[in-house]
Amino acid sequence: MKDNFSVVIFYSNSAAIRAESLTKKENLKIKLIPVPRHLSSDCGICLRFNNEDKSKIEKILQDGKVEYENIYRI
Amino acid sequence: MIYLDNAATSYPKPKEVGKAMLHFLEKVGASPGRSGHRLSIEAGRLLYQTRESLAELFNVTDPLRIIFTLNVTEAINLVLKGLLQPEDQVITSSMEHNSVMRPLRELEKRGVEVKVVPCSPQGDLDPVDIKKSIKKNTKLIVLNHSSNVIGTLLPIAEVGEIARKHSILFLVDAAQTAGCYPLDIRKDNLDLLAFTGHKALFGPTGTGGLVVGERVDIKKLKPLKFGGTGSRSESEEQPDFLPDIYESGTPNIVGLIGLKEGVRFVLKKGIDKIHQYELELTQKLIEGLKEIPGVIVYGEDQVKDRVAVVSFNIKDQLPSEVGLRLDEEYNIMSRVGLHCAPAAHKTIGTFPTGTIRFSLSWFNTFEEVEKTILAVRKIAQRV
Q1: To the nearest 10°, the Cα dihedral for B182, B187, B191, B192?
Q2: Do the Cβ atoms of B239 and A11 come within 8 Å?
């Protein structure tokens, strides 16, 4: 199961929460989790999603003008 | 008790405000935007919902363009001090509160050119006078949306249009209108909208903020405060993105959650309905006061579109004495004196004595207005 997830890393906590709000409106299965240590030295949170939703997630972020650092598979 | 000091701080608040604050203190409690545990995330969500509610109210597309401050004064200081450089010119009106005037007078000492456009004794501003004052070095126009002394509205949409045409930024101090008069960042042509939470938005004191419009280059608007944001923690430099750039230090999360409920209350009632009701109360109050011999009501002769702030005097009586009698004998809370706006009082001709001010809210009633008129009548008759 673990291999099926990716995370979006944001510049700020507020952006992560905005992304959560926007993706939840589209009924996508997502969760805010602490940023995995190996991805960033920051203390923030990131958005975990199922890999199959990647293009939908990217579109939502783009439409909502939510800036993000990167997307990683975990 | 009749509370008529809502232009200072609204009271009472909708019940939901206190409830949500208590719920947060007892059940959530954590810092937003700092840690990754579920309570912190929940705090962050609630804070974001406050931004979302305000974004809906002011027609802002991206809620993250709304940043929180302690009050409208801090938001105005952020813009004026963060944006204006020596040699820049800033245009304002003669009806401003000291939240605008004092930072401008300080900046004047540092070489900023301050142009104060005079308003009429009724507090009206002619947008043409703003246009005539524009020079090559004009960087900003700053105006209150409504006077905190006499409730007169300034023509912000027209001035905003002028600002756009000349590529000048436009800041509006919405202390007296946010929550009780329609405000739309697009229709009103605003670049920066400073608001406070504790007046018509029904939040607690210690809440306020700034809408940062899309024409504002945040690289040119320096933060007032620098510090921890929970983001980019590896860097010793301030983040360069909204809202973190202007939100250092743990925010007044409890207060902002109260504000969320206040804004939701306004959205639920409907801003037009709130404004219409307050206007009816105000009309009744002004008409009643004007009928009393010896009472002078300031502002427009006719009751027109305005907010629910009314200033008056009684001939040969000091405002402070009238205010004391209203409080002690009639249980009516008013505000007397200069209302932190010496420029406005000079404009309407009531400096340095000031006025007695009644300011109403959604929670006032026609019956209270009637009792108030009767009380003023008795005081005017020296009964």
Answers
A1: 0
A2: yes
Q: Please, what are the domains in chain B?
A: 2-10+271-380 (3.90.1150.10), 15-269 (3.40.640.10)
- A17-74 pLDDT, tens digit each: 999 999 999 999 999 998 888 887 666 899 999 999 999 999 999 999 999 999 999 8
* Residue B340 bears catalytic tag: yes
Torsional class of B29: left (φ above 0), alpha (ψ -120 to 50), beta (otherwise): left
Quote the number of domains for chain A. 1
Contact list, B229 vs chain A (CB under 8 Å):
12
ipTM for the assembly: 0.87
Minimal Cα–Cα distance from B236 to chain A, Å? 13
CATH code, domain with A48: 3.30.70.260
Cβ–Cβ contact A18 with B under 8 A: yes
Tell me the pLDDT tens digit for each residue of B197-255.
999 999 999 999 999 999 999 999 999 999 999 888 888 999 999 999 999 999 999 99
Contact B233 A41 (CB under 8 A): yes
Tokens at residue B68, please? 């929180």
Q: Which domain holds residue A21?
A: 2-73
> How many whole angstroms separate alpha carbon B77 and alpha carbon B132?
26
Extract the tokens encoding B38.
């579920």
